[in-house]
């Protein structure tokens, strides 16, 4: 702008003149720089051209133009600085929000981690309980099998004893009924004693009774029969008792197994529920961690953007100040030139 005006000054000036005192004064007064030296050169040519009023007019116009430029540059500067400030404030608000979100997410991650730890130990405990209950069931089944085996053995042995005793009983009864004299043969007696000892043991009262009787007479036989009948009754009672006891034992076994199954089913459900909750929590954790990573990245970018914007703002402001000071200097030169020419107007018009 000012260069164009200087050019106009140059164009309306044709003659070349020697330097007037006013211009000498001006050259002396103005700081020496390119703009000022061009200004003085142009003024010199213009003044030499003799159209002093036109020179004032043009100088005034240059002053007005530059003042206008300064004003509009100031306005532009204010508005751009405000825009920079607004950007920075917005970015800072974003940053604060991001920091908030990071905190919230961190808290959430902490909660989820706590849940996962609790759920994991719950899961471990449930699995241990399941293992224990399975072992317990196995033990119950083993015990029951052993018990059945042992009862069966006892019942079989009891049955065999019964059969033997019944046979001896029958033989003794038959002997008592049919024989009044010599009674039992010695060999038969020995065989009976051997059988009794085998079935009831060497020291069983019946064995002793038969063994110790000097005479195996009818009276002894009758006593033996009576004793055998008592023993048979007692064995039968025992057999019956064991059978009944086994019915109760079987019921007890079934109810234990039932309890175990119910407990296992419940533990199984708990296990499934815990595992699925755990899986969900682990998924939540992954999502929250991913979110936090993204937030941290955004935070970093925003921080950087704030820095960049601050640097741009400062750079713009310092450029503006340097331009403004240049413009102020030019305006002062123009005003000084105007004043000095005005002070010397009469001399210049001659
Ligand atoms: C009856 O059954 C119970 C439980 O099974 C057992 O402990 C007990 O020894 C049994 N009694 C007899 C006499 O078999
Ligand atoms: C300063 O002046 C230079 C040269 O005229 C210009 O390119 C730049 O945009 C100006 N900067 C400001 C901030 O006014």
From TrEMBL:
Where along the sequence do coiled-coil regions lie? Answer: 56-146, 271-305
Identify the keywords attached in UniProt to this record, alphabetized: Coiled coil, Signal
Is-annotated flag, keyword Coiled coil? yes
Q: Where is the signal peptide?
A: 1-17
Protein name listed in UniProt: Uncharacterized protein
- Upper taxonomic lineage: Eukaryota, Sar, Alveolata, Ciliophora, Intramacronucleata
């Amino acid at each position: 702008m000012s260069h164009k005006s200087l050019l106009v000054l140059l164009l309306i000036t044709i003659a070349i003149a020697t330097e007037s005192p006013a211009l000498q004064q001006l050259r002396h007064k103005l700081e020496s720089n390119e703009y000022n030296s061009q200004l003085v050169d142009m003024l010199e040519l213009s003044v030499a051209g003799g159209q002093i009023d036109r020179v004032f007019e043009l100088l005034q116009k240059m002053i007005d133009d530059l003042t206008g430029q300064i004003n509009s540059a100031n306005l532009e500067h204010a508005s751009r600085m405000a825009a920079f400030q607004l950007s920075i404030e917005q970015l800072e608000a974003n940053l604060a929000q991001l920091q908030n979100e990071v905190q919230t997410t961190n808290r959430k991650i902490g909660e989820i981690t706590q849940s996962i730890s609790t759920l994991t130990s719950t899961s471990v405990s449930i699995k241990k309980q399941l293992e224990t209950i399975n072992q317990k069931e196995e033990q119950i089944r083993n015990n029951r099998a052993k018990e059945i085996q042992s009862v069966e053995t006892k019942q079989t042995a009891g049955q065999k004893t019964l059969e033997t005793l019944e046979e001896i009983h029958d033989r003794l009864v038959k002997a008592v009924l049919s024989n009044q004299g010599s009674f039992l043969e010695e060999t038969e007696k020995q065989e009976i004693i051997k059988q009794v000892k085998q079935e009831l043991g060497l020291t069983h009262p019946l064995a002793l009774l038969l063994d110790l009787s000097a005479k195996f007479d009818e009276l002894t036989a009758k006593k033996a029969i009576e004793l055998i009948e008592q023993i048979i009754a007692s064995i039968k009672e025992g057999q019956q008792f064991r059978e009944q006891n086994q019915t109760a034992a079987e019921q007890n076994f079934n109810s234990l197994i039932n309890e175990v199954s119910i407990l296992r089913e419940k533990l199984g459900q708990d296990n499934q529920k815990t595992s699925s909750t755990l899986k969900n929590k682990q998924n939540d954790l992954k999502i929250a961690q991913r979110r936090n990573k993204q937030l941290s990245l955004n935070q970093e970018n925003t921080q950087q953007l704030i820095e960049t914007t601050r640097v741009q703002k400062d750079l713009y402001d310092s450029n503006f100040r340097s331009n403004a000071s240049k413009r102020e200097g030019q305006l002062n030169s123009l005003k000084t030139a105007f004043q000095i020419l005005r002070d010397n107007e009469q001399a210049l018009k001659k």
